[in-house]
Amino acid sequence: MSQGWTPDPVRTSTHASVHRARPRVSARLLRVGLNLYPPLLGAGIRVLSIEPDWSSCSVALKLTRWNKNQQGTAFGGSIGAMSDAFFAMLLMGQLGPAYNVWDAQAHIDYRSPGVSTVFGRFEMPADAVSEIREAAASGEKVLRWFETDLTLKDGTVVASVRRQVYIRKKKERALAAA
Predict the structure, then answer these.
(1) What is the pLDDT of residues 52-95, one digit of tens each?
(2) Chain CA centroid to CA 168, Å
């Protein structure tokens, strides 16, 4: 994956003021940026790693006085935020700029209190990406569920998370106009 700016052929047209090229960043640079992103930083969420091939990422929620609930355990909103958009981000990294990808739904089953740092690992296998690419080839929307457990260091499951991701191949009318 290249670093720096790469034009998005779907969004590039003769009217540069209307359709700007979308930045493409490396997984490493995105990790650094996400760790400075105020909503994640304020919630105590840290992106530990993003694989260069966008196949997985690891995230941690360090328990602090700013993200504890009235019981002294991890606030449920922070646990939810630590799972927000990571499956979509990994999928965008593998599919590239020709696709729209968004989180559509989330189901979080809180299983035990987050009494210390909570860890999450999000995986986007190549076979799932291939299936999605094939299903989205016609331009129809694709909805796909992904799951992971958020755990303490000792393996205790704090929450089981299911996230539905929306995928659709972008229309090529911008290319036809150019």
Answers:
(1) 999 999 999 999 999 999 999 999 999 999 999 999 999 999 99
(2) 16
Cα(136)–Cα(19) distance, integer angstroms? 23
Strand order in the sheet with 45-50: 45-50, 56-61, 118-123, 142-151, 157-169, 99-110
> How many residues comprise the chain?
178
Residue carrying structure tokens 């941690």: 60
Summarize the confidence of residues 108-120 as an average pLDDT. 97
List of domains in the chain? 27-177 (3.10.129.10)
- Residue found under tokens 């659709």: 168
pLDDT tens digits, residue range 9-34?
444 333 333 334 445 789 999 999 99
d(CA 82, CA 40): 8
- Token pair 């540069």 is found at 16
Q: Which residue has the tokens 């996400």?
A: 34
